[in-house]
Amino acid sequence: MSRTLVIAPQWIGDAVMSEPLLAGLSARGEALTVAALPSVAPVYRAMPQVREVIELPFAHGRLDLGARWRIARSLRGRFDAAIVLPNSAKAALLPWFAGIARRIGYVGEHRYALLNQRLPDPPGRPPMVQTYGALSGAPLADDAAPRLALPAQAVDAALGSAGLSRGAYWAFAPGAEYGPAKRWPIGHYAALARGLFEQSGVPVALLGSRAEAALCEQLARAAPGACRVLAGQTSLLDAIALVSAARALVSNDSGLMHVAAAFGVPQVAVFGSTSPEHTPPLNRRARVLWLKSELGLTCMPCFERTCRYGHTACLTGVEPARVESALRSALAEATP
After folding, report:
1. Cβ(5)–Cβ(79) under 8 Å?
2. Banded pLDDT at 150 (limits 50, 70, 90)
3. Predicted model pTM
4. In whole angstroms, how far apart are CA 232 and each of 185, 196, 207, 258?
5. Phi and psi of 35, rounded to 5°?
6. Each residue of 229-246: pLDDT tens digit?
7. For the chain, which domains are there?
8. Is the pLDDT of residue 335 over 70?
9. Do residues 269 and 276 make contact, with C-beta atoms less than 8 angstroms apart?
C-alpha cells in the first residue's frame, strides 16, 4: 500500500474541493495523511478516507523555515509520495526536506527543484475540483463532487452546545474571508432573516469565524429576535456539524458554502466578484445567483477583494425576495 502525504490548501473551500482527489487516491489503495494548517484541519477530519491529520504550526503567510525543517525530519521514511495542493514554493518545502521520493504538484512558483512530478499550471480559472483531481494522474469523472461525513454523535454534541435541533433552524454564513467584494449586503441578509423567521418561527443561526462575529452581530441587530449569533463561538468542526444539520444554508461564495454542498444541504449561494464557473457548490440542492448577464456588468467577475468602483452592484442587485424564492426551490428539490 502506497503511503501518501497531502499538503493541504489554506482556505476552507479549497480544502473541501480537494475531497474527490483524496477519495480517488484512497479507492486505489493509498493510505492518506494530510498536513494542514489548524484553520482547515477539521475539514479533513470530516473525510473518512483520511487516516491521519497533521496540524502544521505555521503562521499564515510566513516562511517558518526552522519549523518546516523540524517537522520534515519527523516525517522522514514515512511516505512514498507527496501531493502538494497549494501553488506556493513554501508549501513544497516540507516534502522536499522530508526526502519523499515522489513530489507531485503544479509548477506554481517555479518549483522545478522542489517537485519532481510537475504539471503545467492550467490556463485561466478552471473548476477547482478537476484541477486538484488531475494531480492523481487519472482524470476525475465530470460529475465528481466533494462529500463530507461526520459521526452522528459529533453533530448531536454541536447541536446540544448551540441549543439547536436538527432541521429546526436556518443557517446563514454572511462572511467571506477573502474580502467584502464577495459579501451580499448585511441589510439584504437581515431582510431575508426577518421574512424567514416571521413565516416559519424557525431561528437563523449565524455562522462564521471570530473575525466575522461583529458582522453577524450587526445582522442580528437588524433582524431583532430572528437570529442567534454563533460566529466566533464554535470550533470549525462544530460549525461544519451545524451546517450539516441545518434546514438550509444561505451564503456568499465561501468555505461554508462548499461545506453545505458536500453534505447535500439545500442552499442558496450568492456570487458577485467571483465566478461559479470556477468554484460552484457541487450540490443538486444548490441554487446559485450570479447576475452577470442580467445586470450587464462587464466587470464581473473581477476576483478583487474590494470593489474597484465602490458600489458592489453585482451583489446589491440580488434582492432578498430573489434569494427567498431560490431557497424555496432548493427546499423543494430536497423533498422526496
Report:
1. yes
2. very high
3. 0.95
4. 20, 23, 8, 19
5. -100, 120
6. 999 999 999 999 999 999
7. 3-136 (3.40.50.2000), 154-334 (3.40.50.2000)
8. no
9. yes
